[in-house]
Amino acid sequence: MSTTILGQKWMCMACGDIYDPVEGDPEGGIPPGTAFEDIPDSWVCPVCGARKSDYEPYDED
Description:
By secondary structure, this protein is mainly β. Helices cover 0% and strands 16% of the residues. A three-stranded antiparallel sheet has the order 2-1-3, with no helix packed on it. Strand 1 and strand 2 (18-19) form a beta hairpin. It is globular. The two termini are 12 Å apart.
């Protein structure tokens, strides 16, 4: 089973928040279905305010 770009989750290395592209971040202006790569670099973690660059790919396995 392969993971598509849209299916790739990302984790904030500062606080552990998980960005799920299926859910997006509607409160942060990111609609559901937005791949992490398509989020503006100015976006910040909705939990701790860390930068987008502080996120790393997250593998649930």
